[in-house]
């Protein structure tokens, strides 16, 4: 039974806590609120940071003899205290997993009941105490947004004397002969019992055993072997067969409780940031997925489907769920579509020391809730565990602070992240766990993690990534954030900030409310140097396309030597923003959308990045590579490169085989730069006997050398 219908709420204070929780309390003056939902979506609470007291009246017949009754909160943002008919139930904390309470005795007293829940989600400033990730106080949600509320359903249901509180199902390893599945169940028993634990696969019993349970919490663990399994594969490598495992608890011949998990049988391994699935390595072409809507309660299955369609249209095989845990539908659809997920635990930037034990517990709950999804390839305990200034003009002091934050030990990096990583590893040895994302190599091990390299935006230029790869190859093993910001097509929020003729705009408001990184734009693309808003917007989008093209091509050319993949920043916005997305908040593509699609095709032909200008008489030497992500060889590849300038051109031709899942250098364009000033372009076309495979274009300018 879902406890839907009419919910009311009011700001919580001591009087409300004393007199607003009982069955006979007067709530006629309280305001109606949406459950599931977030309280700030109610106009009267639009600016409230809570806490709020929620109340819901309902009727239910008492549970039958021998049955137990439970109330489960599927999603609470972020902490709560709950009462039923004035009796205290408990204090759930954690937004992404369910919290259940035994209300059997209270349910037997009568048929009319009131559930009261005080929900708190404190604002996060400085060191964070809430484990809410980017869903609160981040660059991807509006300033002042508070996600507080009962954002998932509240349910009431009955079980027998033994209930399954948590169920963890992991495919530890698998090959064509056998899959090994480990099941862990946490049971809540009313009294000592001898129980039968029955496991079904797609309705057929595959395991049955008896066990004795004591009063209270019990943990059982068992394994099943599946012979000749149909393996789950990423979409580029094969099919995605899924199987349903059902665990049933039987007490005295009666079913007491059951839970189901849909799993895929596969084995994931990582070797120096190169991912392999069922023994087949796969280069990961991915994007960062930030919250699809500002409030998770508003993220419908249809909106998830829409964004995943864009992921597929871009030719990607991976999504990094950055800084939050999303709705269940996202993981279900990724399983079905054969997309891999790099899952962040919702620790973002620096956290207070008080968070450690709660983070450890919630890491285990993450595995319990999501561990059965074959699409999840890795866990990351903490995203960017520093608060260093990331702006372009932070000065030498800012740069020094950034270096210090990366190199010196801190409680977040050295203590918190290790504890959370260890919790993930204890709960799940079937996947790798990364302690923190975006931490460069540092003493004493000089071994970093995945990198956040914003060349061309926060520092340097777009070609800086290739230079970094030569100097420190370990920093490009997996680049999980890169790109640049651009102005979207949907800009009524900028129109509202206009105070007069261009460029008289309320830039402070755009910076405060819409993610505008003013210092960086003023350095790279200052608005007052453009004659109109449209030209400025167009140029920001062209620049974003340039940065993503250069860097995706660089990383793909470094495939497996040493790069295992990438995730660019980012797919789409949840709010009107000037950001690094390739889709705006209305899902209108920016110029970079098509650039990413071409750069992430299964087969691409790439050349070395040309300098911005060259001089007549210079020797020009450009390597050309053919990148083949297909699982079949290109036996007879042909590459034609035409170098053209005003009044002339020259053609280069190369050919030969390219092995499956490999990068081949097909030739070098060696020439002397002509005397003609102006644009010099290189057009490259790769083909095989069946037709064109890929094409690319590069340009530079022939100029007179300075005196």
From TrEMBL:
Catalyzed chemical reaction(s): Hydrolysis of terminal, non-reducing beta-D-mannose residues in beta-D-mannosides
Residue span, Glycoside hydrolase family 2 immunoglobulin-like beta-sandwich domain: 164-266
Molecular functions per Gene Ontology: beta-mannosidase activity
Pfam families noted in UniProt: Glyco_hydro_2 (PF00703), Glyco_hydro_2_N2 (PF22666)
Chain ranges passing through the membrane: none
Protein name, per record: beta-mannosidase
Keywords: Glycosidase, Hydrolase
Gene Ontology BP terms: carbohydrate metabolic process; glycoprotein catabolic process
Family: Belongs to the glycosyl hydrolase 2 family.
Source taxon at top rank: Bacteria
EC number: 3.2.1.25
Group of enzyme by EC: hydrolase
Ranges for domain Beta-mannosidase-like galactose-binding: 53-127
């Amino acid at each position: 039974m879902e406890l839907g219908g009419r919910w009311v709420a009011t700001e919580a204070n001591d009087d409300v806590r004393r007199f607003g929780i009982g069955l006979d309390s007067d709530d006629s003056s309280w305001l109606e609120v949406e459950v599931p939902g977030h309280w700030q979506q109610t106009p009267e609470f639009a600016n409230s940071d809570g806490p709020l007291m929620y109340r819901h009246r309902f009727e239910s017949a008492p549970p039958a003899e021998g049955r137990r009754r439970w109330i489960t909160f599927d999603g609470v943002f972020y902490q709560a205290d709950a009462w039923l008919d004035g009796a205290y139930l408990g204090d759930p904390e954690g937004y992404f997993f369910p919290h259940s309470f035994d209300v059997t005795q209270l349910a037997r007293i009568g048929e009319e009941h009131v559930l009261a829940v005080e929900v708190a989600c404190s604002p996060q400033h400085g060191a964070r105490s809430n484990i809410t990730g980017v869903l609160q106080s981040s660059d991807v949600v509006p300033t002042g947004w508070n996600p507080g509320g009962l954002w998932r359903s509240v349910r009431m249901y009955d079980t027998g004397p033994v209930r399954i509180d948590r169920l963890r199902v992991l495919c530890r390893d698998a090959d064509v002969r056998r899959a090994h599945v480990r099941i862990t169940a946490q049971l809540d028993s009313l009294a000592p019992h001898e129980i039968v634990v029955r496991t079904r696969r797609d309705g057929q019993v595959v395991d049955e055993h008896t066990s004795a349970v004591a009063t209270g919490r019990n943990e059982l663990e068992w394994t099943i072997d599946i012979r000749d399994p149909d393996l789950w594969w990423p979409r580029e490598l094969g099919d995605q067969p899924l199987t349903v495992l059902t665990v049933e608890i039987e007490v005295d011949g009666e079913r007491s409780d059951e839970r189901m998990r849909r799993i895929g049988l596969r084995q994931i391994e990582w070797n120096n940031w190169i991912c392999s699935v069922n023994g087949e390595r796969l280069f990961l072409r991915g994007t960062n997925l930030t919250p699809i809507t500002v409030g998770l309660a508003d993220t419908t299955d249809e909106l998830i489907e829409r964004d995943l369609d864009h992921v597929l249209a871009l030719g990607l095989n991976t999504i990094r769920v950055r800084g939050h845990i999303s709705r269940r539908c996202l993981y279900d659809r990724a399983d079905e579509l054969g997309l891999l997920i790099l899952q962040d635990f919702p620790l973002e930037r620096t956290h207070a020391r008080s968070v450690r034990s709660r983070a450890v517990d919630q890491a285990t709950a993450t595995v319990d809730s999501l561990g059965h999804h074959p699409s999840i390839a890795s866990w990351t305990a903490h995203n960017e565990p520093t608060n260093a200034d990331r702006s372009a003009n932070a000065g030498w002091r800012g740069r020094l602070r950034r270096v210090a934050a990366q190199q010196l030990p801190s409680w977040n990096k050295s203590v918190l992240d290790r504890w959370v990583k260890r919790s993930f590893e204890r709960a799940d040895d079937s996947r790798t766990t990364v302690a923190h994302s975006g931490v460069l190599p540092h003493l004493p091990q000089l071994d970093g993690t995945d990198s956040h390299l914003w060349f061309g935006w926060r520092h340097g230029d777009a070609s800086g990534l290739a230079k970094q790869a030569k100097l420190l190859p370990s920093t490009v093993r997996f680049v999980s954030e890169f790109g640049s910001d651009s102005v979207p097509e949907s800009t009524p929020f900028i129109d509202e900030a206009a105070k007069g003729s261009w460029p008289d705009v309320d830039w402070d408001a755009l910076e405060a409310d819409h993610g505008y990184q003013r210092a960086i734009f003023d350095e790279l693309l200052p608005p007052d140097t453009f004659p109109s808003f449209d030209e400025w917007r167009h140029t920001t989008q062209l620049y974003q396309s340039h940065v993503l093209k250069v860097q995706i091509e660089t990383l793909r050319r470094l495939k497996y030597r040493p790069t295992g993949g990438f995730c660019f920043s980012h797919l789409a916005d949840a709010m009107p923003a000037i950001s690094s997305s390739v889709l705006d908040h209305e899902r209108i593509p920016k110029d970079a959308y098509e650039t990413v699609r071409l750069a992430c095709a299964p087969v691409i032909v790439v050349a070395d990045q040309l300098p911005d200008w060259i001089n007549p008489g210079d020797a020009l030497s450009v390597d050309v590579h053919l990148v083949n992500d297909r699982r079949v060889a290109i036996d007879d590849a042909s590459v034609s490169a035409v170098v053209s300038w005003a009044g002339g051109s020259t053609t280069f031709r190369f050919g030969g085989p390219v092995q499956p899942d490999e990068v081949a250098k097909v030739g070098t364009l060696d020439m002397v730069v002509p005397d003609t000033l102006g644009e010099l372009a290189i057009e490259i076309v790769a083909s095989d006997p069946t037709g064109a495979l890929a094409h690319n274009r590069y340009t530079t300018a022939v100029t007179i050398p300075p005196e």
